[in-house]
Amino acid sequence: MTRFAPFLIFLAMLVCGTPAMAMDVLDEIEKKSASVHSIASNFIQYKHLQIFDEVMVSEGTFHFQKPNSLRWEYTAPFKTGFVLKGAKGLEWDDATGKVRPFTTTDAPHMHIIAEQITAWATFRRDWLSERYEIRQLEQSPVVLELRPKTESARTFLHHLKVTFTDDRNGVSTLEIHEPEGDFTRIEFVGTVINGEMPPETFSAKQ
Amino acid sequence: MSGGTSYGKRHRASFLILFAVIVGMGACLALFFSRTISADMRTMIPQGDENALASDLELLTQSSLAGTMFITVRSNGDTELPKLIQNAESLKNRLEPAGFQFFDLASIHPLQVTEFLLRNSPNLMTEEDLTALRTIVTTEAIKHSLDRAYRQLLSPMSMATKPLIRLDPIGMRSILLPKLHSLNAFDSGEFVNGHMVSRDKQAVLLMARSDIPVTDTEGSEQLINSFASAADTLPAPIVAELVSPHSHTVANARTIQHDIPTVSLLATVLLVLLFWFFFRSKDAAVLLLVPATALCGAMGGLALFAETLSAVVLGFGAVLIGISMDFAIHVYVAMTHGEESPSLAAKRTARPIIYCLATSCAAFGALALSDIPGIRQLAVFAISGLLVSALFSLTVLPTLCGRKHPVFNPRPHSKFSFGKRSLAVLGMSLLVLGFGATRVQLDSDMRSLDATTPSIDKTERAFKETWGQMRDQGILFVHGKTMQEALAHNREAYRELRAHMPDTRIASIAPILPDETTQAANRASWSAFWDDARKAETLDVVATQSSALKFSRTAFAPFEAMLSTTPPPITPSALSHASLEITRQLFMPDNDSAIPTVATFLPDTSAVRDFFTPDREHRLNGRYVSNGMFRQLLSSEMRKDILLFISASGVAAILIVLCLFRNLRQSALSLLPGATGLLTVLGVSGLTGLPLNLFHIAALPLIIGLGSDYGIFMVQTESAPGKTPPSRAILISGLTTLAGFGVLVLANHPSLQAMGTTILLGISASLASALFVLPSLLREAR
User: Fold this and answer.
1) Are B151 and A51 a contacting pair at CB < 8 A?
2) How far is it, in rounded angstroms, from Cα B198 to Cα B202?
3) Which residues contact A40 (CB under 8 A, 6 or more apart)?
């Protein structure tokens, strides 16, 4: 019996090891994100879409302040974006030159986008676990793969790949993979955690 | 010895007669129980011209919204819509195991539907749409559309919109998507993420069906209780409200369960007190045999004429018990109290009883002329019961009860009689009542016969405030020998409605499912529009403009393929593949008759009702039905019925009393109590503004019949010098009638209360007229 012991321990590690590690890492990220009150970051978005000849690159900024203030804005190649405070928001687009108010009840798709971004920014683990199968791909830096649980979500989302910063304080890149192979990679750069955030950050004009 | 033999013979005769009565009752009951009893309220609906009302009701019943349970998940605070939707979903999950089968509005996938519309553009785009299309295939418009597509593709939402952009780079969606507005059959809500949401976003609507029939009281109660338990788990300030026919079933059952013991106990106590007060003899117990025999006779008589018996009619059994006592009371009082020998007294009552029987039968016979099947059954039921009651009273009763007994003797009638001045006041009162009778309103709304509760009323009011007239919409049903023929009629109806009533909300499937002939015409127009030159020019513009935005050469290959492909015609089953199965079910209800039918939902307004003239309906091979129109037709049929009942029973009563008395004055006097009773019911109804419903009307012949009976008994003594009018028999029979079912006025159920009110008013007035007014007039006449 004893000669089989190392093999059994190895087998047990294979079966249980990875999820146990994922849980530890998730616990750590969740704990760290609890102390995050605000995030300000620039981002570069790379769209690998078959319908474009090139990788489409766009840039923008992202601001978040607890509990529910959010700004997501593209600054190049065109300016468009939205701010959201609670249920009320404003969206703008330089093509029309107009700023349009909205509420999450009028525009539920904005609620969905905001909910996703906020869930990641604050690492709402319960919320994420309810919607995705979470698997840890790398340990350092931490890379998680999330596959949607519902059939309807799987029709347009194959999986998400999230890479955390080395200090596990936030997300450094996010990849959104679609079923037919297209994907979007968003790299967050110059991230400032818990920095000062002027009040006009969450208004239409900054 | 001879006395003993005589007693023995009489005893044997009584026994044989009783035996025969029991056998007869048994036979009647056996026949009755061989029939089917139906609680279907449709037996109380007039059939109308060519059975129109019955078939309208059938159509309304078979519509997809009939029998649907509506659950409003509402926030009484300020809850964000996603949270409200989440709670609605959890309520749904809790209710599904309890037998709630929910309409899955979330099964409609917007992207799938949009793709379906785009791929079927050749089938769906009308000449009007092609005119609009002309404005979006210009270079400028295409450039603008591609620029918008480019921005969308760079946004976080690109995953969802990409397939649609590839299929439609020029923005044909702006022409096709408004067609979906016509699918919204609900005027006060909108679809958000597969949920029906109120305009203020503070309420979500769930719709469900159940296998539990609305007539199943126990099942309905379980359903309602399951809902209450599930609703209790919602967190404040979120609440759930159920609007369902099952709630009414439970409320009606509970009301009747409460009413029956209360009313029966009160009626029994009053009857016992009356019997004790007036008869004070155990022999009087034989009178109790009369209603039992009459009821069995009535059930047997009805079973002879009808295969399916209406439970509603059988509910009138209580009424029959009340009337059937009257003949027996007259015979009993004459035998036990009169100066003559019992057998002579019984014989003397025979003639007026036969005439009273004739007037009552005539009054109830008038009901047989009704257009309402249930009322016709009531006529047969009542006449059979009356015949048995008269037969029993005149043949069996004298044998079973032949001794004199003390009977309470009320004060001589002369003390009660009126002077000339009082008569003048009475005449004035009758004039006022007559005036009131001209203002009688009819309540043809079947819902007013329903025992509702304040909580149900409140929920239904709140539902109406939130969702508008969703439950009370008018529906146009068009038919065809084939589904394609029905769809062609439906498209024509839609076209006519749009042309004549552009501001009316029309919910129709026609814009996304035209008939195949129309689709073929659309395809021909589409082909003509997309001639080779336009196609090449458009694709060239798309290629040039998209290239500037770095789109790949194959980015819009699906669009090019779509322009070169002719799709097959859209069939009803194609809707299911486009996640629109629920829409198919809503607009194309499966009906029992298997006749292809397509529905259009419209507001229940007089303008829409007037629009669907018989000619138009004939041309469209359709029928517009709505609760409002149904009430209008029902009201007209009820008005016809009420006139028919009163005139037929009135004429018959006049003829019978003329035949009996062969004297105009006596005939008129004998009809006075019945006329007074009738006038009082109609007058009070008109003056107080209390409208008469079906149950009030069904009780009217009873007033005419019983009132005339009182009159006949009073007047017939005028032809028998030395005889005093049978005031005490009339008083006792009147009081037993009032005690028997006048107490129904205390019931909570509207139908029982309606009957009780009619009886209480009518019989009280008839009785007062017979006992107090008639003696004065008779004396005056002498």
Assistant:
1) no
2) 6
3) A61, A62, A63, A64, A191, A192, A195, A197, A201
Read off the pLDDT of residues B197-239 as tens digits, 9 standing for 90 and up. Answer: 887 888 999 988 888 877 677 888 899 999 999 999 999 899 9
Give the DSSP H or E segment for B330. Answer: helix B317-337
> Per residue in B466-514, pLDDT tens?
887 777 788 899 999 999 999 999 999 999 999 999 888 899 999 999 9
Closest CA to B256 of B442, B447, B444, B449: B449
- One-letter amino acid at B449 equals L
- Burial class, B143, CB count within 10 angstroms (exposed 0-12 / middle 13-18 / buried 19+): middle
Q: Quick check: A75 contacting B, CB < 8 Å?
A: no
What is the spatial distance between Cα B299 and Cα A15, in angstroms, rounded to a whole number?
78
Least confident of B279-288, B372-381, B750-759: B279-288
Q: Which residues of B touch A74 (CB under 8 A)?
A: 154-155
List CB contacts of B2: < 8 A, sequence separation 6 or more: none
Q: From chain B, which residues contact A within 8 Å (Cβ)?
A: 80-82, 109, 147-148, 151, 153-160, 162, 165-166, 192-193, 201, 550-555
**How far apart are the CA of B118 and the nearest CA of chain A, in angstroms?**
19
For B82, the token pair is 């996603």
**Facing residue for B154 by CB, picked from A74, A87, A176:** A74
Helix (H) or strand (E) holding B142: helix B139-154
Tokens of B6: 């005589």
Alpha-carbon A101 to chain mean position: 25
pTM: 0.70
Nearest to B69 by CA among B230, B202, B201: B230
CA B100 to chain centre: 24
Contact by Cβ (8 Å): B319, B702: yes
Q: How many Å apart are CA A111 and CA B378, to the nearest integer?
A: 63
d(CA B38, CA B77): 46
What is the residue whose two structure tokens read 């404040």?
Answer: B236
Of A27, A69, A72, the closest CA to residue A45 belongs to A72
